[in-house]
Automatic annotation (TrEMBL):
Similarity field: Belongs to the class-III pyridoxal-phosphate-dependent aminotransferase family. BioA subfamily.
Species annotation: Candidatus Profftella armatura
Protein task: Catalyzes the transfer of the alpha-amino group from S-adenosyl-L-methionine (SAM) to 7-keto-8-aminopelargonic acid (KAPA) to form 7,8-diaminopelargonic acid (DAPA). It is the only aminotransferase known to utilize SAM as an amino donor.
Superkingdom of source: Bacteria
CDD domains listed in its UniProt record: OAT_like
Protein's cellular compartments: Cytoplasm
Name of the molecule in the record: Adenosylmethionine-8-amino-7-oxononanoate aminotransferase
Entry's Gene Ontology molecular function annotations: adenosylmethionine-8-amino-7-oxononanoate transaminase activity; pyridoxal phosphate binding
Cellular-component GO terms for this entry: cytoplasm
Chain's gene name: bioA
BP GO annotations: biotin biosynthetic process
Binding site for pyridoxal 5'-phosphate: G131, A132, D270, H334, S335
Location of N6-(pyridoxal phosphate)lysine modifications: K299
Length: 458
């Protein structure tokens, strides 16, 4: 693993060195000993020059198929001509204006379109820029609703095991992935954590329904005792993505909705990763035919172009907060709230869904890709092959837990050599490609993953 000199070309090396000097790269915590050339590139840092459809091309001309949609945001490929054109038009009109006291067409049209997609059940859209902020907004709004109604004690939240809702302090408090919160635990509010209805337990002989009912039991016990203290439960509908692509049956969403009604607590659906068609329907909640009290969107909503997030909510919540009186209005003032360019990219994204019949395309493509991957299912080193919409995942058996970290790095590096951008989560390898792969690209993606697998797992 050590001493992988990834770039032979001088220009690439220069960019890598400069980037490592002044750019603080997120997540990949790679201590590059820049001075010590002998231990140079532990993991490659790839200077990307441009993008074209599902392909990313680096400065030395090497291409990579973006099979993870650049952290799950890119839906219709890089440098998409339709979105490009819409943005250029918007750029000539209005780049930004504050949304307090002022308004503009892109934000109005986008809010109308999204509301109509929920049949106006969630007819009020509040805007931020990143996913974590949308989660903060939903948590604050939920608390604020109960506050205005006189339920001053309802200020705790529930989340699921392995949940991920972002990394600002409020969002991190409802995240249950140890590595992200370990250091910061003392800064975070205490949250109730309940069993996740992980469908991998089907392998142990339980049906999806039994798994869901078992997990719900946990919620019910908690609420029986503590519902007076609890404002909301926050969940990632159907797939807990950052937690390791943990999938579960839609019956769980139905049951959670019921219980929330019975015990007077809000349901916050964090669809930041699973929204915008990723699970095969525009909103993942549609699989269960339920609506939450708050729905968070971000990531794919602009087609992966610009940062935008939003929280959609009901008349009931909107009215309780908005029309009260001056003291109790909802405050979350964000400079770039409803940015016209980002809204314009989101509108273009929704137009593509319509004009290219994307949901139908997804329902066909997911079958093709699943079929192309079938021989992975029976591989002796692979367990828990799973799929939901345009997400595929499987777990690789690694005997020594200490080797899991090395495995994911090795896999990442080997995949790059095979012109594929993949980034396993521990021993979970997943694909989350853009929705526009053609036959050859599907072929490339699947053969590159087999090739990589054979190189890494011997
Ligand atoms: C990515 C993600 C977030 C956080 O979004 P950012 O834009 O990275 O802050 C929140 N929830 C889920 C489910 C996510 O996948």
């Amino acid at each position: 693993m050590n001493n992988i000199v990834y770039f032979k070309k001088k220009s690439s090396n220069n960019l890598v060195i400069r980037s490592l000097k002044n750019v603080w790269h997120p997540c990949a915590q790679i201590k590059y000993p820049v001075e010590n050339k002998s231990n140079f590139y532990k993991i490659p840092l790839i200077p990307i020059s441009h993008g074209n459809g599902p392909w990313l091309i680096d400065v030395s001309g090497k291409r990579y198929l973006d099979a993870i949609s650049s952290w799950w945001v890119n839906l219709f490929g890089h440098s998409n001509s339709y979105i490009n054109k819409a943005l250029k038009n918007q750029l000539n009109k209005l780049e930004h204006v504050m949304l307090s006291n002022l308004t503009h067409k892109p934000v109005i049209k986008l809010s109308e379109k999204l509301s109509s997609l929920t049949q106006y059940k969630l007819g009020h859209c509040f805007y931020g820029s990143d996913g974590a902020s949308a989660v903060e907004v939903a948590l604050k709004m939920s608390f604020h609703y109960w506050y205005n109604k006189g339920f001053l004690n309802k200020k705790k939240f529930i989340c699921l095991q392995n949940s991920y809702h972002g990394e600002t302090l409020g969002a991190l408090a409802v995240t249950n992935i140890q590595s992200f919160k370990e250091i910061y635990t003392s800064l975070l509010n205490k949250t109730y954590i309940i069993t996740t209805p992980d469908s991998r337990n089907i392998n142990k002989g339980n049906s999806a329904n039994e798994i869901a009912r078992c997990a719900i039991f946990d919620l019910e016990i908690l609420l029986k005792k503590n519902h007076n203290k609890i404002a909301a439960i926050i969940i990632e509908p159907l797939v807990q993505c950052a937690g390791g692509m943990i999938m579960y049956d839609s019956i769980y969403l139905k049951l959670v909705r019921e219980i929330c009604n019975n015990y007077n607590i809000h349901l916050i659906a964090d669809e930041i990763a699973v929204g915008c068609g990723r699970t095969g329907k525009f909103f993942a909640c549609e699989h269960a035919e339920i609506w939450p009290d708050f729905l968070c969107l971000s990531k794919g909503i602009t087609g992966g172009y610009l940062p935008l997030s939003l929280v959609m909510t009901t008349d009931k919540i909107y009215n309780s907060i908005y029309y009260k009186n001056n003291i109790n209005i909802f405050l979350h003032s964000h400079s770039y709230s409803g940015n016209p360019l980002a809204c314009c990219a989101a509108l273009a994204t929704l137009e593509i869904f319509n004009k290219d019949n994307i949901l139908q395309r997804i329902s066909q493509d997911m079958k093709k890709i699943t079929k192309a991957l079938t021989s992975l299912i029976t591989h002796p080193k692979i367990i828990n092959f799973r799929q939901k919409g345009m997400i595929w995942a499987f777990d690789v058996i690694i005997e020594d837990p200490e080797q899991i970290e090395t495995f994911s790095k090795k896999f990442f590096v080997a995949a790059l050599k095979n012109e594929l951008l993949l980034r396993p989560i521990g021993n979970t390898v997943y694909l989350m490609p853009p929705y526009i792969l053609n036959k050859n690209e599907i072929q490339h993606m699947t053969s590159a993953i087999f090739q990589t697998f054979n190189e890494v797992i011997t």
